[in-house]
Amino acid sequence: MRRIPESQLVLAADGSVYHLRLHPHQLADDIILVGDPSRVEMVSSFFDQLEYKVSNREVYTNTGTYKGKRVTALSTGMGPDNIDIVLNELDALANVDLRTRKVKSNLKSLNLIRLGTSGALQADIPTGDSFVAGKMALGFDGIVYFYDKSKDVVLQDFTDAFVADTDWPSTLPYPYVVRGSQRLLDKIAFDCTQGITATAGGFYAPQGRALRLGLAHEEMNKRIEAFRFKGERVTNLEMESSALYGLSQMMGHQALTICVIIANRVTEQFSSDYQPYMLKLIKQTLDRIAAD
User: Fold this and answer.
1) pTM score, whole prediction
2) What is the per-residue DSSP string for 142-189?
3) Averaged pLDDT, 107-127
4) How many domains does the chain have?
5) Is the residue at 2 inside a domain?
6) Are strands 254-264 and 131-139 parallel, antiparallel or unpaired?
7) Are 116 and 240 in contact (CB under 8 A)?
8) Is position 219 within any domain?
9) What is the pLDDT of residues 73-93, one digit of tens each?
10) Is residue 5 part of a domain?
11) What CATH number is attached to the domain comprising 141?
12) Residue 256 sits in which domain range?
């Protein structure tokens, strides 16, 4: 079996994975992913017991128990590039022997639940006490195409329909559509609004925002909003889910994103006081994780 070289599986001096600074025993099988490091403390404030608390750069990790269930809360920072780092290192913790640098014979599947904030792309989705779960994710970041298993997870019919329907510019990264975990959707988000969560590689022009710089494709958000295929529509826009779904599927993990809607890009509404709704979503998610 291949030994993964030091330059590819990078470890810190203490033998932990390089960016997360975690050892395998510090990670639970059920993981809540958040973008904001401060949100890790919000999640772990509900824990009955805290076992480990580790931080490095923007990645903060708290592992503990909630109603007898072991849970890890981990911050990824913003963007699909950070998801690429976090997912690969989480998978290494679960499925690579860090001492021998060889893939384990028995592979583990992690449950990865991202709780974030997002902007709605449909006028009927309100801000505030409104949770949206991504049945699928639509990526504008190109991350999955760097991996040889991308052809196994990209929904080509959805992708081709989106490209044709929006007249997607050839100068932009080629989109892709991937599925989230149906198992987690049924267990954690059965009563949420469901649809396609779009993932942009940036916050401003990639999401149709213009400050001093103008947009190269001013009508793109309207085209995305109008897209329909097989009864599905793009419900919201954020910055992490496509890479999370695509990498998780290729690695054999279960992944789902649930977002609090803090803005509506169609009606131009914005909810600045969304923390109570995020706390509600965190508590609801923890309760459903623990309900085995």
Assistant:
1) 0.96
2) -GGGGSTTHHHH--HHHHHHHHHHHT--TTSPPPEEEE--HHHHHHH-
3) 96
4) 1
5) no
6) antiparallel
7) yes
8) yes
9) 999 999 999 999 999 999 999
10) no
11) 3.40.50.1580
12) 24-290
